[in-house]
Every structure is written in structure tokens, then in C-alpha cells.
Write a structure and sequence with these properties.
single chain, alpha+beta, 2 domains, 10 helices, 48% helix, globular
């Protein structure tokens, strides 16, 4: 290979890498089908990882260290011909400024997951065009991850990504797949997206910004101030919970943050925690065991 060709090749790969937004892995477990050794599951796992990691989902140029970390765990419970059904759990995280800490942002288990897939079938996302339920579900969660990550850096910064996810919801409603309609329950993709775009749940998105940008990201230089900002972000969720009790977004928040909150307020500089613990027990009683461990 001559030098010019080599330079062009390196330039090409740098350009591709800078256009990618996410970095992570897809894991498929098909043990419940009794056919977990079939090549289709390995092909699907590889294809989904490449689809997410190598697609340019935004116009933003990410450096390698800026790419958003995610994991997708798909549990296939039924499989026949090209029809699959099971669950999909999606998680994402981001680094904390000035530290080596990685903080979880999103942890969601979707039990309404079914799709058709033929081995080696290409996976491509096209805006405003329905391709398949598999592409729609994965693309929906990609934009949800992007939106939540943006909300942690800028107040309501994730709106454009949530709006793109909403377009996916709308176009996917033409299918018969579950999870895309308001009638599909309180833990559906429809409900998740509708609540993220609703003014009624704006306190959730504000809390994401306060917790991460004003809290965690300043703890490397002022731990006490960071902890106070995190406590304030949680207190601000209380009014949302009072008007919208048992909301999906409240559960999404604490499914990601319960263990981290326990750790943050169980060490380091002392800050008032009596009101905080009272709020935690009120808005997230399912994690009462974590809150009992907050002793300082």
C-alpha cells in the first residue's frame, strides 16, 4: 500500500470513529429457547452491536472518550422461524468530571419486546420510515439514551433526542407490536417517551441536570457543595411525586441511582440528611433498605 493510500485510509477511519456516538455491547441470552447454540443468535448479537456502535445518530462529533457508554441485554424466551420474543434491558452511564467515577444514568427493563429477524438481515435506521420492530426498538432506546445523557449536561438539553424518539413511537404504531401505544401499560416505550416530553415531569429532567452537572461534577473540588446539590435535586423530585405519585420516571430515576445515593451520603463531608432520608422514603419506598444504610 503506498503512502497516499495509507493516509487516506487512516483519515477515513478517523472520520468514521469521530462520527460514532455510542460505545458499548449487546448481549443476547437464548437459553430459555433450548436452542442457544444456533448461529442466528450470535449473528444477531454482532449485528446489533455494529448497528448501534457504527451508526452516526447525531450531527455531533464525539471524541472516543466522549462516546456514551451503554449496555443492552436481550433475553430471548421464544423463537420460531424468524419470530423472536423476550425482554430487553437497557443501561447507560457517563463519566464524572474530575474523577475516574462512572455514574449510571438509565436502567430500564422492557418486557414488551418481540420482533422478526432473518440471519444476516441488514439493520438500518431511517427517520420517519418504519423498517422493523427490532430497528425501531433499538433506535428508540438509542435516542432515549442520548437525550438523558444530554439532560445531565444542559437543562432540557435532551429535548431534540426525545422528539426523535417520539417520531419512532409514532411511525412504529403502524405495526401490531406491543409497547408503542398509550394502551400498552404504564411501563411501555410510549409512556416513557410521553413522560419525558411532558411538562408535568419537567422536575425529573431538572433533577438530572442538578444531580450530575451541579452535584457529581463539582465533587472533585468541593465535595460538600456537590452533595448539597445532589440532595437538593432529590428534594425537588418530591413535588413531582406529590402531584404524580408512582410515576414511571420516578422509578427509572431510582432504579439507576439508589445504590449510588446510598454510597454518596454514607461517607465524605457531613451534610444534613434528615430531610433527605425522609424524602427518599416517601418518593422511593421500594428502596427503603438502601435508605436505612444512610447513617452519618
Amino acid at each position: 500500500m503506498n503512502k497516499i493510500a495509507l493516509v487516506l485510509l487512516l483519515f477515513f477511519w478517523v472520520a468514521i470513529a469521530s462520527a460514532q456516538d455510542l460505545n458499548g455491547e449487546v448481549i443476547i441470552n437464548a437459553e430459555q429457547t433450548g436452542q442457544s447454540n444456533l448461529s442466528v443468535f450470535k449473528t444477531l448479537q454482532r449485528s446489533l452491536s455494529e448497528f448501534i456502535n457504527q451508526t452516526s445518530w447525531t450531527d455531533r462529533k464525539y471524541a472516543n472518550h466522549e462516546r456514551i457508554n451503554y449496555s443492552v441485554f436481550i433475553n430471548i424466551s421464544k423463537f420460531e422461524n424468524d419470530a423472536f420474543s423476550g425482554t430487553i434491558q437497557v443501561q447507560s452511564s457517563r463519566p464524572v468530571f474530575g474523577s475516574t467515577m462512572i455514574t449510571p444514568i438509565f436502567n430500564f427493563n422492557d418486557e414488551q419486546f418481540s420482533f422478526n429477524y432473518r440471519e444476516f438481515e441488514p439493520l438500518t435506521y431511517s427517520q420517519n420510515e418504519y423498517s422493523s420492530n427490532l430497528v425501531s426498538v433499538i433506535s428508540f432506546y438509542v435516542y432515549t439514551i442520548l437525550g438523558l445523557d444530554a439532560d445531565t449536561f444542559q437543562q432540557e438539553g435532551g429535548t431534540p433526542y426525545f422528539e426523535e424518539a417520539n417520531r419512532i413511537v409514532t411511525t412504529a404504531q403502524q405495526s401490531n407490536a406491543a409497547g408503542w401505544r398509550g394502551s400498552d401499560g404504564n411501563r411501555s416505550r410510549y409512556r416513557l417517551n410521553a413522560d419525558l416530553l411532558s411538562k408535568a415531569f419537567l422536575d425529573y429532567r431538572t433533577a438530572l441536570y442538578q444531580y450530575h452537572r451541579l452535584g457529581l461534577d463539582v465533587m472533585h473540588k468541593d465535595p460538600a457543595a456537590g452533595k448539597k446539590a445532589i440532595a437538593n435535586s432529590i428534594q425537588n423530585l418530591r413535588s413531582m411525586n406529590d402531584s404524580r405519585p408512582n410515576s414511571l420516571l420516578m422509578r427509572v430515576f431510582f432504579d439507576s441511582k439508589a445504590q449510588e445515593i446510598e454510597q454518596i451520603f454514607s461517607g465524605g463531608p457531613s451534610v444534613p440528611i434528615a430531610d433527605l432520608v425522609d424524602t427518599l422514603n416517601r418518593v422511593a419506598p421500594m428502596y427503603a433498605e438502601n435508605w436505612r444504610k444512610i447513617q452519618f
